Amino acid sequence: MKALQKTKKNSKKERETHILFGVIDYYISTGKPVGSNTLKETGFENISSATIRNYFASLEEEGYLHQHHASGGRVPTEAAFRLYAEHASSANMIEQHEKQLFDALKETETKEIASFLQQAAESLSNLTECAVFLSAPRFDHDFLVNIKLVSIDHERALCVMISDFGVVKTELIHLDKKLSAFAIKRIEEYFHWRLTGHDKPENLEKEEEETAQRLYNEVMVRYIIGYAHFTDEDIHRTGFSKLLAYPDFHDPKLLANSLSLFENAQAVRHLLRECSSTGTAKCWIGKDFTPYTQTKTECSVIAYPYRINQQIVGAVGILGPIRIPYKKLFAVVKAFTEAISDALTRNIYKFKIDYRQANIGQPYLPQEEQKLLGQSQTMLIEDKSQYGRSI
Questions:
Q1: Contact between 379 and 355 (Cβ < 8 Å)
Q2: How far apart are CA 282 and CA 287, in angstroms?
Q3: pLDDT at 230
Q4: Three-state SS at 243
Q5: Looking at 118-127, 159-168, 230-239, 379-388, which range is the least confident one?
Q6: 3-class DSSP assignment, residue 67
Q7: Exposed/middle/buried for 20, CB within 10 Å: 0-12, 13-18, 19+?
Q8: b/e map of 100-131 (b: 16 or more CB within 10 Å)?
Q9: Distance of CA 252 to CAs 64, 126, 258, 296, Å?
């Protein structure tokens, strides 16, 4: 008798969950509150409107639905979306054009790993219509191939450093005086000569050469220090303008709060680090972001880890509103991470690239962050000291 009662209880719960997921599916596709008659007409014809209303009442008591108005339809709560996302994480809904994109990513051959990851992130953003952020290990035996200067005012210039692996770094440097466009061109020629050993600029005046030498030394010292002290994963971010298209973010305050999370490098880094440490898919919705930001964020993040030779080295996250097609996006992000894992594993070995990781799995505790300094792992694949001029 007890077993029969338990079976009936489970059966009722399953029907209730089925009703809830029907409400969420409709709300995701339309953005409109869902009434009993509406739900009945969208795949629940075998259930009476009265029975659906009873389920609605139960789901409302359990915190999964709420009504803006007494006579209006129901809207899923954050708790409902969390339950829905939990079930959606195993979905496998990849369309043919998406499969073709991921197959192309898998076959990519390049030693410009950083550029590959950035371009891949942009492809994922275009595919999902979400903002994308991605954590990456540090790829060793890289070296600078170009340095550019952009004059800002009479005291400052922006220095842009481009590496052989496609990494782009910027530094703000101090000037003794404003540089003319001609002087900047001459200094860049000097940088090129120092980096490559070719095409030494001719007829440099003493003051020009002294300025170029000082700036080169300053830039190289900053680059080497930043390269050597790898305490945080490199973060690639793109696609935040995609959020402007969502009606959910037409409220400037809600959009600003979500963008503040996306632009907070440490918060993003800790989200991705948590995903990497679990080794599986993660999803955060609404209040789940409380440990990472003080602002109210009505958005969601789906993240998956990716690997090099079966070892987790980073994670990929997409950020959108709470009302997103979770089944679709879980499947797409999973397939994306599998594609870049395959491409990275092959290219790392083909081009004999070493890499190292910052320490992962640390809790998001500000007082603990100093402990990350100096904690890193080195994974040597092959001694590449004979290849090129390494930093």
A1: yes
A2: 15
A3: 58
A4: helix
A5: 379-388
A6: strand
A7: buried
A8: ebbeebeebeebbbbbbbbbbbebbbebbbbb
A9: 27, 23, 10, 13
- The answer to whether 254 and 298 have CB atoms below 8 angstroms apart is yes
Cα–Cα dist 163/141, whole Å: 10
What is the pLDDT at residue 154?
87
Nearest to 120 by CA among 323, 306, 245: 306
35 half-sphere exposure, CB direction, 13 A CA radius = 6
For 161-212, the pLDDT digits (tens) are: 998 888 888 999 999 888 889 999 999 999 999 999 988 888 788 888 999 9
Amino acid 141: pLDDT: 72
Cβ of 227: how many Cβ atoms within 10 Å? Answer: 17
Are 138 and 356 within 8 A, CB to CB? Answer: yes
The closest of 306, 316, 300 to 261, measured between CA atoms, is 300
Triad 243, 249, 250: Cα angle to 5°: 115
Comparing 2-11, 19-28, 108-117, 302-311, the range with the smallest average pLDDT is 2-11
Phi/psi at 47 (nearest 5 deg)? -120, 135
DSSP state of 34: B
* Rounded-to-integer distance, Cα 314 and Cα 358, Å: 10
Query: What is the DSSP track for 266-313?
Result: HHHHHHHHHHHHHTS-EEEEGGGGTTT-SS---EEEEEEEEEETTEEE
Other C-beta atoms lying within 10 Å of the C-beta of residue 69: 7
**Is pLDDT at 158 greater than 50 in this prediction?**
yes
Q: Please determine, for residue 41, whether its predicted confidence score (pLDDT) is greater than 80.
A: yes
Domains, the chain: 2-76 (1.10.10.10), 96-137+233-351 (3.30.450.40), 144-228 (3.30.390)
Nearest to 58 by CA among 41, 36, 78, 40: 36
